[in-house]
């Protein structure tokens, strides 16, 4: 399985996942901040056909290019069933499996950052959206976020994966594109909090509203 990361200037991350045998591909969390031509060029260089475009959640800080890319490629858009956008060719809730060539996409329900957050587990990799970041997590104070739900997503779902599982988050502001479950369990300050302390910390965490919040929500829910 080939994984190609795309890192936007403001920290948004997208990933192209390609099965080298069948040349079927999955694109995760595409953003207009990354030119569509870059995704299309990567597909062409890999000789790959885009089968799915997956959104790990409804993004509030950048505009998705999923609809545009689906129109250009014929790929199916995959979202959680509770995602507000009506553009869902594949609607999931968690627990589903989907083929990608010789590989299997396992859909994990990982709510907390939003009520419709999912992660995608493929082989030794997991794409966590904003549920689990590198030495951090997403916020829980809007988009029907829930600190209790995020705690269980971290410890009962993502934390249950093997320690060597490579974590690919939807954001990083230090130029990083990957970590591991083992690293996050031992070094992520929020993973190290007790249940009670985690809930208290996240409920009190109210960072500034994202710069493009209103524009992004309007575009990403249509």
Q: Could you explain how this protein is built, in words?
A:
The longest helix is centred in the C-terminal third of the chain and has 12 residues, at 147-158. The chain has one domain (2-220): Metallo-beta-lactamase, Chain A (4-Layer Sandwich), CATH 3.60.15.10. It is α/β, with parallel strands linked by helices and 222 residues long. A six-stranded mixed beta sheet has the order 1-2-3-4-5-6, covered by helices on one side. The model has no long low-confidence stretch (mean pLDDT 97). The protein has helices at residues 36-46, 66-73, 147-158, 181-187, 195-203, 213-220; strands at residues 2-7, 13-18, 24-28, 49-54, 76-80, 90-92, 97-100, 103-109, 118-122, 125-129, 166-169, 179-180.
What is shown here, in short?
The protein is α/β, with parallel strands linked by helices. The protein is built from six helices and twelve strands.
């Amino acid at each position: 399985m080939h994984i190609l990361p795309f890192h936007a200037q403001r920290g948004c991350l997208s990933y192209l996942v390609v099965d080298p045998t069948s040349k079927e591909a999955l694109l995760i969390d595409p953003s207009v901040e990354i030119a569509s031509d870059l995704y299309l060029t990567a597909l062409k260089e890999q000789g790959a056909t885009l089968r799915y475009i997956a959104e790990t959640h409804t993004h509030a800080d950048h505009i998705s290019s999923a609809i545009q890319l689906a129109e250009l490629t014929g790929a199916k858009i995959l979202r959680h069933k509770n995602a507000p956008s009506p553009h869902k060719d594949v609607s999931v809730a968690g627990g589903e499996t989907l083929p990608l060539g010789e590989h299997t996409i396992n859909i994990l329900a990982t709510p907390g950052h939003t009520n419709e957050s999912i992660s995608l587990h493929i082989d030794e990799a997991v794409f966590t959206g904003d549920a689990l970041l590198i030495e951090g997590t997403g916020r829980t104070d809007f988009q029907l976020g829930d600190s209790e739900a995020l705690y269980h997503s971290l410890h009962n779902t993502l934390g249950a994966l093997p320690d060597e599982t490579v974590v690919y988050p939807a954001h990083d502001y230090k130029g990083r594109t990957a970590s591991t479950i083992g690293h996050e369990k031992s070094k992520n300050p929020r993973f190290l909090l007790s249940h009670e302390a985690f809930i208290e910390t996240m409920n009190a965490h109210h960072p500034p509203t994202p710069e493009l919040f209103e524009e992004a929500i309007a575009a990403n829910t249509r």
